[in-house]
Amino acid sequence: MSDTTSETIFSPGMRVRIRDAEWFIKHVAPVKTGGQALYVRGITCPVQGRDQIFWTVVYKAPFFCKDREADYKEAWDLLERRKRC
Q1: pLDDT at 71 over 90
Q2: Residues linked to residue 28 through DSSP beta bridges, in sequence order
Q3: How far apart are alpha carbons 41 and 72 in whole angstroms?
Q4: CA-to-CA distance for 43 and 16, rounded, in angstroms?
Q5: Structural domain contains residue 10
Q6: Mean pLDDT of all residues in the chain?
Q7: Residue 28 has what pLDDT?
Q8: Which residues pair with 40 in a beta bridge?
Q9: Which of 3, 25, 42, 81 could be cross-linked to 47 through a Cys-Cys bond (beta carbons 3.0 to 4.6 Å apart)?
């Protein structure tokens, strides 16, 4: 099986490899923050028969311009603001 990314669209019935184990997708639900919640059942040992939920992650950079110096300053300012909270 190939590696999965945040761009992958999952659907019930698919088999996926997560954390070195194979899982059968029973249900997929959208998540408010983007991505999907995967409701799965284990196929291989030691997770066989075990139900689990995994969330996909959608990462979006906090900057948009091509000038890297400005990007780093904006990212640094974002981290500083979060540190103060």
Answers
A1: no
A2: 38
A3: 42
A4: 10
A5: no
A6: 82
A7: 96
A8: 25, 52
A9: 42
